[in-house]
Amino acid sequence: MNEIILSNQLSDAAELPAPTCEEVKAALDVLRRHRALGLDGDLHPEPARGGGEDLNRSYPDEFVPDLAYKAGMPDLQNGPSSLIRGARTDIQHVGISNFRLPLKWQTRAGEEMLLETSVTGSVSLEASKKGINMSRIMRSFYKHADGRFSFAQMNSVLESYLDDLASLDARLQLSFRYPMLKPSLRSNLDGFQYYDVAFEMVRQGPETICIMHLDYVYSSTCPCSLELSEHARKTRGQIATPHSQRSVARVSVVIGNDQLFWIEDLVELCLAVIPTETQVMVKREDEQAFAELNGSNPIFVEDAVRLICDGLERDNRVGDFRVIASHQESLHSHDAVSILVGGRTFRQISHDPRMFASLYHVG
User: Is the pTM of this model over 0.85?
Assistant: First the structure.
């Protein structure tokens, strides 16, 4: 009976295609890991210490892995391509997002600030590779974490990514809240305004793209509502209040490698074209001044993106750009939004469904 079964098995095996060298190597790797884990031929775990059924449940403080032990540890992410699941295709970005640490940033005035920074780092992955060692992204970044950060320092990080992870392309984004001391309108007080900022650097083959992102928060008074309110006052002596609301413009600009363009420069550019930035320190005289400022600068969402576009096009340090504006209406139960793009970098047909929702700024 056993001879018949063996004969059938041999007959079935003869019909199977011969395994490739890659498949054989993968199988041997599985067997080595199987043996290292102390598993028997029936795939039932044997006691790691030989004899007895109980495994050690106490953390071994004294254990120090030597080189031989570490060499025998499983490493699935760097396994052969036969272990790939799904389509064998290139991956544009793979990495880690939102690991945080304090980094040094320089102000335009030459001062240094230590700011909590959220880091997103990724590299490309070739179709033939199973994965990357995620921890190498953090380790590579920490090699440069003591420096003063700028696009030049970010470029050094990307060089490490490409070398340490053997990739063709890499991307790095650093997000933080940048404080600037701003004066009140009339009361001669000062307060810190915080700006959501991100520096992004993308390396695609020989091309390097440097991008600054800034969220500029302002008040928008509806021009139509203002005119209707004035009409009610003049024709019927009726008091009326035009609606205005907190609004956000997310401005993204490509900066040339040889250009010095500071966060303060982009803030001042936005303030020059839309002067109704939300205020930090406010007394009665400031509140009245802000009402007057809004009345003097009524603005639709279409106006907002065009005004910022005009300011960006006048600055020769700025390359491609994108302006996304959201006026979070006090009249309507929906928002008014607009997107204006200059150049090819930000042109796209589809947008993240939650993009406009991400523009909400809670006080």
Answer: no
